[in-house]
Amino acid sequence: MTARVHRLTKRDKVVVAVMAGIPTLLALCLVWLPAIASIVLSFTNWTGVGGLSTITFDGVDNYKQLFSINPQFWPAVEHNLIWLAALLLVGTPLGMFLAYQLDKKIRLTKFYQTAFFLPVVVSTAVIGFVWKLVYDPDNGLINSLFHTNKPGDYLDWIGSPHLNLWAVLVAAIWRHAGYLMVLYLAGLKSVDPSLKEAAALDGAGGWQAFRHVVFPVLKPINIVVLVVTIIEALRAFDIVWVFNKGAQGTELLSILITQNIVGEASRIGYGSAIAVVLMVISLGAIIPYLWVTFRRERREGNGR
Amino acid sequence: MSVRRAPSARPSPDHGPSALWTPSRRALLAGAAAAAAGPLLAACGSSSGGSGGGGSSSKTVTLGSNGSDAVPKKAYAALWAAAGKSTGDTLKVNVKQHENFQNQINSYLQGTPDDVFTWFAGYRMQFFAKQGLASPIDDVWQTIGSHFTPAIQALSKGLDGKYYFVPLYYYPWAIWYRKSVFKQHGYTIPANWDQFTALLKKMKGDGLVPLAFGNQNQWPVMGTFDQINFRLNGYQFHVDLMHGKESWTDARVKKTFDMWASIMPYHQQGAAGRKTEDATGFVRDKKAGMIVAGAGTAVQQFTTDPAALADLDFFPFPEITPQWGMDTVEAPCDGFMMSKSPKNKTGATKVLEFFGSPAGEKAYLDLDSSELAAAKDFDNAKNTALQKKEAALITGAKNLTQFMDRDGNPTFVSTVMIPALADFVRSPNTFAATKLSNIEAQKKSIYASS
Lengths: 304, 450
Prior knowledge:
heterodimer, A: 304 residues, 2 domains, 1% strand, flat, B: 450 residues, D-Maltodextrin-Binding Protein, domain 2, 4-stranded mixed β-sheet, 50% helix, globular, MetI-like_sf (chain A), ABC transporter permease (chain A), membrane (chain A), transport (chain A), transmembrane (chain A)
């Protein structure tokens, strides 16, 4: 160890220090410090007015209240998980399907690709706004087409807690599918056409060729997709915020954090406690993935 | 007009948690924690930045404004111009998007706030005065005090009895309707709850939506709660409830919700997805009979059609308990405050004195006719008949309330009452029995800590 260090020139050391130091410093300031501050603050009570001296520690009170008397908390956890399931089970296969179809040399494929990718380029806030117009209870596209804006058979897509989560999920899936389509299109380009030809020669149908030839090649992309989808589901915020500000039926953890921390008078500690819960859920999703990845790498490393 | 910096509807990027909190940021947690750290940084800044107050020779007064909507923006511009002319100071105005201004007020006031800023009367003002984030302005009131009634004077004082607020205008909440619709069906103005519910029933029978209703913005519904509550239980109980002194599990609160639930079937369906402005449009288009709304919202939807505007009228929320009669009016009042250590205190005092004068109010109200001057000696000859009626309603009231989100603790109202009332609107019949104890439990923890 020491021998190697001695071989580095002064300049090398400076370069290494800068290259390692700046990212470390950034990660420390922008990720670790805020995360640790959130955890510490989650055990405190602070209105955000006045200096640090006005912070009082009150143990696990915030968590107790969160788990017992906050009527929005458990629905928010549930909705975040539904969001994740919907993106994984509907959005992802849809994106894969679109990519697989558009990868064939069909006419106007560039046009379709652009059309499906468009929602990804547009800001999510704009998507929320556009779908709000579609779902508007009085003059929206859907209720006008189906005449469901009359007393008696009124469909309140934005307000009704039985409908609004699904309504907003349609918008989220619409965007997510376009995003994944592009990822999968890139992946499909790496599938050797001769593999597909060989499968066709062996008499494999479209589904069989996909299932046994194409899908296995997409494995690295699938891992990326999984991570992207989990991140998208947990950070879901802007579409809902624009759609109905997280009213009953569409509560999300990110929205509860915002409502408690950003505002005229805030409950910094309470909001931080919700943020910590979201962090624990994120870790619950990411740690198994990292564990599997590292174990595989170690195994492959040993095999060599 | 030269005094006014080009206003920007976008929030300025340099203040506080909402600015740091960009929803699309990748790391949600980092964002949340950064939001938490925002006030910290702001707090550090204020200790060094705020010390230049007092006898500064600068002739510039800075002003933070939430008047970003089209009509107020124009009216405020006229007010700034008039103030600049009257005081000889240069006004530097910083306009922020209306709701962002409110959301960022906390870190704004702790950072480097403008000398004078727009704000609201009531507990919402007292809350920040109590935190030491505003300057007492008793000297301003020595000049302007005679222009205002005792009710308005009371609204302008902090909990310590000092003045912190200069009122500009107010507007009443009431029930709005079209005279021609009432005439066509032979309806009469309901004086009490029984007549009111009978009228609702009749309207439904006539194929009208009795009460137009929109709660997408999530706050308008509070107006109905406030009015039923103070008509039923009296002004003092309502205010004590708002200040956290009375319990939400009290049988009187339950009664308020029960009465409200009993008329919920007469409200327009789909309220959660409809803006209150759009709901007012149903009254204008004669599809709905009435709406519970503030004057500004009601009038705005009618201004495009002069014939409809002439047809618009209102009546105060009907009496419920004879003992209280109709002695209270919900009349939110907007105005100005001075930040805790203004850079140009002399200039800021002069500007506030002008804002509280009839000339100042005239400069604003000439261009925003949906509001009423807060000053009692304001020359209202130019007012419409409707405005005169509104003014009579307010000046005739024994008590003025502001609005739930101005009379109550802002944290409690925004994080507990907004979702609770939305919940009530959807399931009115089971609400009072099951949800009130939860509201009370949350109230206790919030009021205890702030």
